[in-house]
């Protein structure tokens, strides 16, 4: 009887030890999330987001308690980023300055995208941009739509920059505004329109005084705390709405999580403060 009891106790001890080892090797849900978020999140972002996106990323990491989450951002024109994605650039999220390029990706579903289920991810609108006229050499205080057009038409040697309409939505909206005012063709014939590669370069042309006026993003002016006489914010209904869409390109949980944060009130507050129009 004593022998039987001794063997049973030994077996019981072994069973308890085995159970203990099995329990300690199973990852918890928290560990799984940490592993998922430890992977670098790669974002392709339109150039106009360079002022606001760093603050949003910092708010996201703090609010989600993910201080170690690595997030890499590449800024360029939306057209250039789209071309990179089509060519195989390994981005997890594409934040465009328009709706066109994310819609094309959703429709074309390139084979190089990392999403296992390419029907899952659809474009989403995350903000609306505002167009403004900016100058460091001319006063723009107390302008109105009529005096704005007169200002642009006066002075045959003054130069005006817009971002490339073929690549940059802000440039496309700026061109549409000038066409609606019936002054685009005249300015073009007079060689007074200087085309920049993207909205960032258009801002630099105007900021350095290389041109007299620049059609730029209101967010750029908000970031630099431009004075009232340096800019004029165009009425949103005077040019095509600059609705900015994004699209998730991979199955990374962090990609979906971050895109949801952008559209939540916590993310939208950053856009509002930065000179954008919030979206629902």
UniProtKB/TrEMBL annotation:
NCBIfam families associated with the record: modA
Segments forming a coiled coil: none
Residues annotated as binding molybdate: 78, 199
Alphabetical UniProt keywords: Metal-binding, Molybdenum, Signal
Signal peptide feature range: 1-20
Similarity section: Belongs to the bacterial solute-binding protein ModA family.
Organism domain of life: Bacteria
Name of this protein: Molybdate transport system substrate-binding protein
Annotated Gene3D superfamilies: Periplasmic binding protein-like II (3.40.190.10)
SUPFAM superfamilies: Periplasmic binding protein-like II
GO biological process terms on file: molybdate ion transport
One Gene Ontology term of the molecular function aspect: molybdate ion binding
InterPro entries, per database record: ModA, ModA/WtpA
Protein's UniProt keywords contain Translocase: no
